[in-house]
């Protein structure tokens, strides 16, 4: 299952990076807001 996910992630790599960046930004916002 993990190999399948890895192969799938190879295509929309940019989207994954952007998603991770947005998630990190939201997490930072919540942490700093506390």
Automatic annotation (TrEMBL):
Q: Name one GO cellular component term.
A: plasma membrane
User: Where is this protein primarily located?
Assistant: membrane
Question: What residue ranges are annotated as transmembrane?
Answer: 14-32
User: What GO biological process terms are annotated to this protein in UniProt?
Assistant: sodium ion transport
What is the official name of this protein in its record? oxaloacetate decarboxylase (Na(+) extruding)
To which protein family does this belong?
A: Belongs to the GcdB/MmdB/OadB family.
| Reaction(s) the record says it catalyses | oxaloacetate + 2 Na(+)(in) + H(+) = pyruvate + 2 Na(+)(out) + CO2
Reading the lineage from the top rank, the first entry is Bacteria
- Recall the GO molecular function terms of this protein's record: decarboxylation-driven active transmembrane transporter activity; lyase activity
Give the protein's cofactors: Na(+)
Report the EC number(s), separated by commas if there are several.
7.2.4.2
Describe the protein's quaternary organization and the partners it interacts with. Heterotrimer of an alpha, a beta and a gamma subunit.
Task: List the Pfam families.
Answer: OAD_beta (PF03977)
Q: How does it sit in the membrane?
A: Multi-pass membrane protein
